[in-house]
Design brief:
The structure is a single chain. This protein has 3 domains: about 120 residues, Rossmann fold, CATH 3.40.50.20; about 60 residues, Dna Ligase, domain 1 (2-Layer Sandwich), CATH 3.30.1490.20; about 130 residues, D-amino Acid Aminotransferase, Chain A, domain 1, CATH 3.30.470.20. Helix content is about 35%, strand content about 25%. The strands form 3 sheets. Strands 11-10-9-12-13 form a 5-stranded antiparallel β-sheet. α2 crosses α13 and α8 crosses α11. The two termini are about 15 Å apart. It binds adenosine monophosphate (AMP). Adenosine monophosphate binds next to β6, β8, β10, β12 and β13.
Length: about 350
């Protein structure tokens, strides 16, 4: 349960010349520490022993390793104390809530770069889709089990598990059987945990944005396509073979591919980004800060339906550690999302606006 943390009090005591950028050793951590170093910050990684050998290769980017037995130890008093001593600003990435749990993520007493109150929304597929709809962003239709369902649907389970356990269904029967299976496997507790959504046929694309409260502007920092197993492998097999082997498509993310969007679609995508910023300002004040991602499918009439968002840095940004074709246009220098975060922190400190970018 979110009890609210007085972060202003914490940063009031910080030595702003000795800020440390901290994150968990996973997801986009290398990009984040690389970007932080480029902008002149100290860096720290929260790490488990089994990952240390790997990350120590990048010692030149990491000033402090803080070893924990398990990720949720991040919220233990002595770790929080240590982080405050280091004047830490913690960067939550896509694995953060999944690793430490919602309770720790919402209540940890150190400043987080970004919007803390969006974690709870992100943890619930229904609340997520509601927020997009309230923004006026086109989304796929969704269904309740008491409605007639005849179209192809994708049934989604909660939490950022990289598409794990999602399944396709063509009838209510198939949906019910699939949901029962998910309950038996402990993936969900009750049928309403699952989201039943129209399956949109088209090209998936993930739009990376950055909202800067300091410059009061929205930037589009990159676009990627996710590569997913086995759905992206199925096209290698002929339809008659597929029918005979009866393999069901699955959507487990295994990597990311860069994408440059047809330019005439960019302004449309940008408008979706602006709507997202506006709705979060209205419903989750102070509103989104820094990186977020709108995840959609582009149909053959070039309409784009957004089926998901992430209120934080997404792994697809790891493609652009040297900057993307778009980030280069804003900054005329290699600007990864990780570096952009550090730049925002630097600008905020310079202009006395740190409390507008941390929650
Ligand atoms: P998500 O966890 O919502 O990001 O979804 C994982 C993957 O499932 C996506 O990357 C897409 O490949 C696929 N997907 C999700 N929602 C839809 C949809 N409504 N229509 C088609 N494919 C979808």
């Amino acid at each position: 349960m979110y009890v609210g943390v007085n972060i202003r009090k914490v940063i009031a005591k910080y030595d702003l010349d000795r800020i440390t950028i901290v994150t968990l050793a996973s997801h986009s951590a290398l990009q984040l520490v690389h970007g932080a170093k480029k902008e002149g910050f100290r860096t720290a990684l929260i790490i488990t022993e089994n990952r240390r050998l790997f990350y120590e290769q990048f010692k030149h980017l990491i000033d402090f390793f803080i070893v924990v037995n398990k990720w949720s130890d991040l919220c233990k008093e002595q770790i929080v104390k240590k982080l405050i001593e280091l004047n830490s600003i913690f960067i939550p990435h896509g694995s953060f809530v999944e690793y430490v749990g919602l309770d720790c993520a919402e209540n940890i007493g150190i400043p987080l770069f970004g919007l803390r109150s969006i974690f709870r929304v992100e943890a619930n597929q229904h609340l997520k889709m509601d927020l997009l709809a309230k923004a006026g962003i086109p989304t796929p239709k969704h269904y309740n089990l008491d409605e007639e369902i005849r179209n192809l649907v994708i049934v989604k389970l909660p939490g950022a598990k990289g598409g794990k356990g999602y399944f396709l269904a063509l009838s209510k029967d198939e949906i019910i059987k699939g949901i029962e299976r998910a309950i038996n496997q402990g993936l969900i507790n009750k049928p309403s945990d699952a989201l039943i959504q129209e399956y949109v046929v088209g090209v998936p694309a993930y739009f990376h944005f950055f909202f800067s409260p300091v410059l009061n502007r929205l930037e589009i920092l990159g676009i990627d396509i996710r590569y997913e197993s086995n759905v992206d492998g199925l096209r290698r097999l002929k339809p008659n073979v597929l029918e005979r082997i009866g393999i069901e498509p699955s959507f487990v993310v295994v990597g990311n591919i860069p994408m440059a969007l047809r330019e005439s679609l960019l302004y449309k995508v940008y408008d979706y980004g602006l709507r997202f910023v506006k709705v979060t300002r209205e419903l989750l004040p102070p509103g989104i800060v820094g990186p977020f991602c709108l995840e959609g499918i582009i149909e053959d009439d070039l309409n784009i339906k957004i089926f998901e968002f992430s209120g934080r840095i997404v792994a697809g940004t790891n493609l652009y550690i040297q900057g993307s074709p778009y980030s280069f246009l804003y900054w005329d220098e290699p600007m990864s999302t990780g570096r952009r975060i550090a730049r925002e922190i630097k600008l905020a400190i310079k202009r006395g606006k740190l409390d507008s970018i941390v929650t």
